Amino acid sequence: MSDAPLLLVVDDDPSVLLLIDVFAEKMGFRVKAVTSGLLALELLRDGLRPAVILLNILLERTHGLTFMNHLREIPSLEETPVIAMSTAEALDRYGTQLQVSGTLLKPITRASLTPALEPYKMPSG
């Protein structure tokens, strides 16, 4: 599974991380889950190259807008797809400012996660 696409999940809720980990692995992703935007940025600066990032935009210490600004400053990651996760209110409020590839409404379900991640899966066979 080492050639499977890498999904970076950034959320401060351990239950969300676990849920996404289980669903995404069943879809064929390798998953790196982190509880802080600062840790995620550190990993990305150190060379982590995910196929896609799922980002909770209302993180406790690093807001999604701040994360996205820093992400776009990392060479070779400017085009990395990011899917913003949050409540409908937060997505309405910040969605256009984030300039992300997509959005995912919380609570996350398998039915909502699957189509969001499908474009980033490796083609089978």
Blueprint of the fold:
Layout: E1 6-10, H1 14-27, E2 30-34, H2 37-45, E3 52-56, H3 64-71, E4 82-86, H4 88-98, E5 102-105, H5 110-117
Helix pairs in contact: 1-5, 2-3
What would you say about this model in short?
The protein has five helices and five strands, in the order βαβαβαβαβα. The chain has 125 residues and is an alpha/beta fold.
Task: Name a few traits of the molecule.
alpha/beta, 40% helix, Rossmann fold, 125 residues
Structure description:
The chain is an alpha/beta fold. It has a single domain (6-120), classed as Response regulator (Rossmann fold, 3-Layer(aba) Sandwich). The protein is 40% helix and 19% strand. The chain is built from 5 helices and 5 strands. The protein has helices spanning 14-27, 37-45, 64-71, 88-98, 110-117, and strands spanning 6-10, 30-34, 52-56, 82-86, 102-105. The protein has a 5-stranded parallel sheet with strand order 2-1-3-4-5, with helices on both faces. α1 (14-27) links the parallel β1 and β2. α1 crosses α5 and α2 packs parallel to α3 (64-71). The radius of gyration is 13 Å and the shape is globular. The two termini are 14 Å apart. The mean pLDDT is 92.
SSE string, helices as H and strands as E: EHEHEHEHEH
Total helices: the number is 5
Task: Report the CATH superfamily.
Answer: Response regulator
CATH C-level: Alpha Beta
Strand order of the largest sheet: 2-1-3-4-5
Alpha-carbon distance between the two ends: 14 Å
User: Strand percentage, roughly?
Assistant: 15-25%
Total beta strands? 5
Mean pLDDT across every amino acid position: 92
Dominant shape: globular
Helical fraction equals 40-55%
Question: Which stretches of 5+ consecutive residues score pLDDT under 50?
Answer: none
Give me the CATH fold name.
Rossmann fold
